[in-house]
Write a structure and sequence with these properties.
This protein has 4 helices and 8 strands, in the order E-H-E-E-E-H-E-H-E-E-H-E. The protein is α+β, with helices and mostly antiparallel strands. The longest helix is centred in the middle third of the chain and has 15 residues, at 95-109. This is GNAT family N-acetyltransferase.
């Protein structure tokens, strides 16, 4: 069946959500489920790859209107990749690369100087970003603290009878090995940049 890359439309939402959920199930984002598509406060590039009525890939990039507004770099205008997913039955067919290439042209036309992507510690995803020209520039840890021993002495409630059951936290310190050894679910989340001025 012919695949088409086109802008996202409101009527795509259900198929968009289904594609994203299925794409995340075997990744470190397996529990990052959305019930509705994210809407952006800034201009955005929102593209889908379709086969017939089914969305088989998607990319959303929110754009800076001034440096540092959405992206990390306060000197250059960038586009932050909010979502990039390919249906698991359609992987390794170049859909992600085609979506990215279409988005790159639109980002350049919009005056963006670089793209920024954040991803967790799935090595195959990191390899994909590196293979399409991104380079890793930063990382921090995302930490899930579960009830019991992991929360004891770490998180306390000041509200009587309110007991934390689980906590999601960011660790930006230098002793990553200690944090990894202390908690059962820790993800290294890395920033990858693609300089659009060098392409």
């Amino acid at each position: 069946m012919l695949m088409i890359i086109r802008p996202y439309e409101e009527y795509d939402e259900k198929s968009w959500l289904r594609c994203r959920v299925l794409a995340m199930l075997d990744t470190a984002y397996y529990d990052n489920v959305l019930k509705e598509k994210e809407r952006y406060g800034n201009p955005a590039i929102e593209l889908v790859a379709t086969e017939g009525e089914e969305i088989v890939g998607l990319i959303d990039i929110e754009l800076d209107t001034r440096p540092g507004e959405v992206c990390s770099d306060s000197e250059r205008r960038g586009g932050l990749i909010r979502h990039l997913a390919v249906h698991p039955d359609k992987r390794r067919q170049g859909i992600g690369r085609l979506l990215l290439l279409e988005a790159l042209g639109r980002a350049r036309t919009s005056g963006m100087q670089y793209l920024e992507a954040w991803t967790r510690d799935d090595q195959w995803v990191r390899n994909w970003y590196a293979n399409v020209g991104f380079r890793m520039v930063d990382s921090y840890l995302q930490v899930y603290l579960e009830s019991g021993d992991q929360l004891k002495g770490m998180i306390e409630s000041k509200v009587p009878q309110l007991h934390p059951v689980s906590v999601f936290a960011h660790y930006t310190g230098s002793d990553k090995a200690y944090v990894v050894s202390k908690f059962s679910r820790v993800h290294e989340t890395s920033r990858f940049d693609l300089d659009l001025m060098e392409l």
